[in-house]
Write a structure and sequence with these properties.
By secondary structure, the protein is of the alpha/beta class. It has 7 helices and 14 strands. Bound molecules: acetamide.
């Protein structure tokens, strides 16, 4: 499977323009699976829950429909983050859409910093979807800081974790080495670039999207400050081999009775 990381610089609240740009980036580079950043077509720094609700979109609406259509046209999966409009309020959500019309929906479990004032805490838990024999898990940005997130997806059988991000701290790209190694999974972190300063606080996103193999190899490492799309091939069977040597198995050797 050819995995593409897409990193963009969305203009705040310019949904249509940002979507056009993302679809152009997708079109520029053939792949089987595109991973896009968190909140990839709205921008990040909402001033209030009401404002987030104004730009949030329903999971079955026309905006998300453009990704569903693109998945069909390119015969490829697309993972992306978006503000989800729900009756009870907005979620920081992500979705994977498939060419055959299915989807995997996820609501961010671990909200970061002022997101706690903006979004409702995610209530979906972590799950995976299968396409072309590859099992794919989904997570959003700060989830990485909690090892249980990627561990849960690995234990559920994920070969690759699509990680839609708007990272502001500099650690995740390096930490993915350990997260990939300790779970023997591919990690595809798509991170946006640029800055926002809407609420009196400037935040700068760290770009540098990475695709890391189950053995900790950096298959892709994108630039820190420019938009980019890059592609690498993954082999799910490398992720399924959980034996470390003749004596050790990553999952069979766990001792959960000592972990609480
Ligand atoms: C983050 O969770 N967007 C840092």
């Amino acid at each position: 499977m050819r995995v593409a990381l897409v990193q963009n610089d969305p203009a705040f609240a310019k949904t249509d323009n940002n979507l056009d740009r993302l679809l152009t980036l997708i079109e520029s580079t053939p792949a089987d699976f595109y991973v896009l950043p968190e909140l990839c077509f709205t921008g990040y720094q909402f001033a209030s829950r009401e404002e987030a609700n104004r730009y949030a979109v329903p999971s079955d609406g026309a905006v998300i429909g453009r990704f569903r259509q693109a998945a069909k046209e390119h015969n490829a999966l697309i993972a992306f983050g978006y503000p989800e409009k729900a009756p009870e309020g907005p979620y920081n959500a992500a979705m994977i859409v498939t060419p055959d019309g299915r989807d995997l929906r996820y609501r961010k479990t671990h909200l970061f910093y002022r997101e706690k004032d903006i979004f409702l805490p995610g209530d979906t838990g972590f799950d995976i979807i299968e396409w072309a024999g590859v099992r794919i898990g989904l997570a959003v940005c700060f989830d990485w800081f909690f090892p249980e997130s990627f561990r849960t997806l690995a234990l559920k059988g994920a070969d690759i974790i699509a990680h839609c991000a708007n990272l502001v701290m500099p650690y995740c790209q390096q930490a993915n080495f350990t997260r990939a190694l300790e779970n023997r999974v591919y990690i595809a972190t798509a991170n946006r670039i640029g800055s926002e300063e809407r609420t009196g606080e400037k935040i700068t996103f760290t770009g540098g999207s990475v695709l890391v193999s189950p053995h900790g190899e950096y298959l892709l490492s994108l630039p820190k400050e420019t938009e980019a799309v890059e592609v690498a091939e993954i082999d799910p069977f490398i992720a399924r081999e959980k034996r470390i040597n003749d004596f050790n198995d990553l999952f069979a050797d766990r001792r959960p009775e000592y972990y609480s």
